[in-house]
Amino acid sequence: MYGTREELCEDLENMFTSDELLVLLVWTEEGISVACREAQPEPDGAEIREVMKALGEMKMTQYRQEGVNNLTISDLLTRQREAANRQVSVPAVLLSRVLRNYECELENRIGMAWEAGRQEPESVRDELNNVRALQEALAA
After folding, report:
1. Is residue 35 within 8 Å of residue 70, measured between CB atoms?
2. What pLDDT tens digit does each residue of the chain (140 aa) get?
C-alpha cells in the first residue's frame, strides 16, 4: 500500500476488522533514501516517491515470499532508472512531426503569457529548448 497516513488508515479500515491483529511495517522517504545510499547518483525526491509507489504496488504474495529489505529497495531503484533510460526506435518522420506539433503548442503558451503581460514560464522555455535539441539531433 502506498499513500498518505490518512489514506492508508482508511484503506486498512476497509480491509480489516477493528479487532483483527496486524503487523505494520513502514517505509518512509528517509528509509528509502538510506536503503539507496550506495546508489550513484543518490536518488532525488521524485525517484524516492516512485520507489515507494512501486513498493506499495507490490503483491502481498511477493513481499511475503521475498521480503522487503535494502536490497529489494535498491533493485526497485535500479529497475526504475533502467526503464527511464530505455531507448526506443521510432521513424524520424514521426518524431519530427510530434516535435513540430509540440513546438507549436509551446510557442502558443509563450504567446498567451506574453499577451497576458506575464513572462514565459521557465518550464515552457526549458521544454522548448529540449524540443529544439531533439530537432537538431534529428537534422544531423
Report:
1. yes
2. 999 999 999 999 999 999 999 998 899 999 999 999 888 899 999 999 999 999 999 998 999 999 999 999 999 999 999 999 999 899 999 999 999 999 999 999 999 999 999 999 999 999 999 999 999 999 98
Helix, coil or strand: residue 134: helix
Contact of 63 with 17, CB cutoff 8 Å: no
Q: Residue type for 57, please?
A: E
Give the distance, in angstroms, between the CA of residue 53 and the centroid of all CA atoms in the same chain. 9
SS3 assignment for 5-21: HHHHHHHHHHHCCCCCC
d(CA 133, CA 140): 11
- Cell numbers for 94, please give them: 514521426
Task: Calculate the alpha carbon distances from 37 to 71, 74, 86, 123, 133 in Å.
Answer: 11, 9, 23, 30, 33
Q: Which residues, 6+ apart, have CB-to-CB distance to 48 below 8 Å? A: 29, 32, 33, 36
Kindly calculate the radius of gyration of the chain based on its CA atoms and give it in whole angstroms: 22
